[in-house]
Structures are given as structure tokens and as C-alpha cells.
User: Fold this.
Amino acid sequence: MTQLVTDRGTIYDRFQAVADDHPSRPFLHVPEQTAAVYELERVDFTYSQALREVQSLHATYQALGCGKGMRVGVALHNRPEFFFHLLALNALGCSVVPLNTAMMDPELKYLLEHSETALVVAHASVAEQLSGVADVTGQQPPVVTPAELPGLTQRWTAAAGALDEDSEAALIYTSGTTGKPKGCVLSNSYFREIGRFYAGIGGYCSFRPGEDRLITPLPVSHMNALATSFMGVMETASCLIQLDRFHPRSWWDSVAESGATVMHYLGVMPAMLLNAPEKDDDRSFHQVRFAFGAGCDPRHHARFEERFGIPLTEAWAMSETGAGAWITASHDPRHVGTRCFGKAPEGLEYRLVDEQGNDVPSGETGELLVRRSGEKPRQFFFSGYLKDPAATEEAWADGWFHTGDEVRVGPDGSFYFVDRRKNIIRRSGENIAAIEVESVIVRHPAVLNCVVCPVPDEIRGEEVAALLVAAPGHEQDTIAEAVFEACLNDLAYYKAPGFIGFVDAIPLTASEKVQRGEAKKLAAEAVSAGRCLDFTARKRRPAKEALK
Assistant:
């Protein structure tokens, strides 16, 4: 492969270094069930075998003129080839835009247009859908399967300049609180520092370089699988075990069969795994030393650790913060079952402030503000929101990154998550912007007003609830059905309201703003009392998500 990188600081640089030093070490393993879902014959790749796959793709992309300044949408699910394409594109200086095909066409259209994606590489199962979406965008990028790449007649011209740690490596979208999702620009240094930081946390999260096998079911369209697990294994020359998604019934079979020693989780996973019947060998059939994740329900934390013998290491980070502000409860005391996520690591400065921006007294709850110490307060954070410098600067108001998370700090310096100040619903690891769902609901002519908010869910953490004010003379059941179907048509299935209730008025402030706290209480009471229509059983992955 032509060596295009002049600064040893890209994602590909790290991969090539490990492949050169440890060619025979395992890099990627696909467990039996995931291999069956994806209809794969080959389930293991060493670093040298993966390097050959990457080199072949690199030559193909290079022949097309792909390079720095170009964004490529990748819709290959959690399949192993996703990582090969990412590495090949990164070596050329292209930015990868992972596409979540659970999204509906209007959402995907926005992402393709906003990101100015020039090319989309998609698995055959979603290529036709994405072609239809791309055809109605302004730039109309070609959509091809990996097999069709060499036959493309279109060519691109790369931007001038060397690649380095500051070059854009990926663009991922987060649920914004003021409308459409925001594109987080992520640099090579963002990824590289995540790998270095994760590898060096220590305590419960102590890697054994060259020996560990990390299993994750999380989607590559999210920071955790795209950056944390991927860069963590490369930094330690370890092996990544990537599942198609989380399967509660076969999870432990995949763990045992793959020889996993580290597992990644979201809060929904411990809850579901604890529902399975107990077995005598729950603590002895696996080799997992620690689990890394976030959002475990305090009621499940100690129970899970006692039953399975695996410490659940709670952590805090955001797509925007990366390793620039990453806090992990990897050292004692972990304060199990209290929503504790550790202490501030060296190099991180923080404040807790009230709604007026004033520091709160010691021990009280406030919004968490973070930055790096020293002359580069934004180092290792995201590079900014694409095409939205105003939003970027608002997030960094007064020189601090405003997380939107309500946190308190205990006497020993431990952080405890309390709530989100932003209008975000956290359902099974997905961040859902209330305003995005509201914007679909209010299109119904019989809906005079609405508010969307989270309600507690035993398994998923939170569920989406919508309170509607209906125009007189309309059947509430009919409105609710139409609203739910509209959300399924325009939004990813998990964003649709699981509960829909009706109220005479939405609680407002004197300035006509929604009182989100009061609305949240109303919704919880309505769901608990059975006054809402329950649509949760109809929130299912659509047929278009078949992965074969």
C-alpha cells in the first residue's frame, strides 16, 4: 500500500503498527450466531489477514480518487467489513459517516444532505433503500455494495495537504435538543486518545496486551463501538468480538464460545440477563474479568456482580467529549448501586453549576461542565458541530463544555449521575431528542399541543411518552393511532412514543415555555395509573432491517 500518512497519528497508523509488530495475533472474531445472521463462512481474522483486506480496499478507493476532504457513508451494519472499510478510508484521509439503517428515509435523507456525503457503501440488504434516499438528495451520491465498488465510473479529487491527528476521521450524529441531529466532527486524535486512555485506565479495567478478547453488541454508528472498543483493542493489540446486536438468550453462549475476557454493556443488558433462570455455573462458565459500560440500574448492579462474578465498571463520556472528558469507576471505592461513575482523572477540570451558571455548594447537584487543564482546553474533544459554529460555541460557553447532565460529587470526589438537563430520553442506549418526536406529532391536524418526555422502564431504562392536547370533536384513540403510525413512518422505530396520553393543557411557564419537569411527572403518573394508550408492544425493528 502507498504510505500516504506523514504524521504517525491516524487510526490506520495504529492498526498498521500492530499488524507489523504482531501479524499473527487475532484481530477480529465473529461468534457463531452472528456469523449465521450475516451468512459468513469466515469468522476469524488475524492482524495480517485484516491488513490484506484493508490493502485491497485501499487500492480500490485510491483508484476512484477518494481522499482527504471526502465523506463516505458506510452502511454495513456491524459486519467485519465495516472495520476494513473504515481503515482503508482512513488511510486515504476520507471521513467515515456510519449510517444507522434503523432510521427512516426522512432521517437518512437529512444525514446524507447535511454531511455532504459523496459516496455510500451499503450492504445489499439496504442498498436499494439508500439508493432511493440518495436519489432525492441535493448531491445524489452513488450508492454501491462493496462488490460494486471497483466498477464505479465516477471519480473524485482529494483535497491537498498531509494527514495528521487533526484530520477529520469520522462524522457521527447525536440527538439534538433544538431540532435536527447535530453532526459531531471527530478527528484522528479523538480516536487515538480514546485508545490510549482506555488502555491506561487500570484498576478493574486493566488490559492484558495481546491476550484480551473484547465482546460488544453495540452499534458501530455510536461512539462506544466505533471508537472505544475498536481503538481499545488496537491500542493493546487485542481481539475485537463484534456481534450483530444484543441477543439476551444467546449472549452467554457467544461469550463462552468466543473466549471473551472483556465485555461492553449498556444499562438494558444487565436487566435482561438477570431475568434468565439462575444456573449453578453462572460465575464459572466464562472468562470475563470486567465489563465496561454505563447506565446500569442501581437495583441490578450488585445483583449482577454477585451472580456472574463480573464487575460492571460504570463510566461517563459523550460523543462530544471523547477521551477529553472521560470518567470511569475503575478503582475502589466504586460505590456499587449508586449511579457512581468514578472520579475526575488527571488533566480534567470540572465545575457543577446551577441554571444561572453559578457554582453550586459542595455536595449539591448541578450541571457538569468540563474541559482539559492547560493551554488546550478542547484537546481530544470533538472538533465541533458540522456547519453549526454557533452551536459549537454555545456548548463551549465561557470556556467550558456544557454537558447537560445533572451530577453531584460526594465527599471523596466520586461523581454521581442524577438526571439530564437536556430534553433527551435514553432508551436502551439510544439518545432520543424529545423535540424531534414532538415535531412529528404536531403535524397531526387534531393535535393542538404536545410534550414528549421520558418515563421509567424496568428493562430499557426509559421509554418515550407523549402527552397530547386534542382539538374538540376528535376521537382520542384515532388520534393516538395516527400519531404513532406517523412517528413510525418518519423516525427510527425506537423514537416512536411507547405511551400516548391526553391532557387538557400542557404545563407552561409564565413565558409560555413547557415546564418539562412537571410534564415528566404528569406522564409518569398517567402511565402508572393506566391512563395512557400503550404502544410498546408495537415498537419493533422493521422488516427492512433484515441483515442477510
Notes: The chain has 15 helices and 26 strands. The two ends are 32 Å apart (CA to CA).
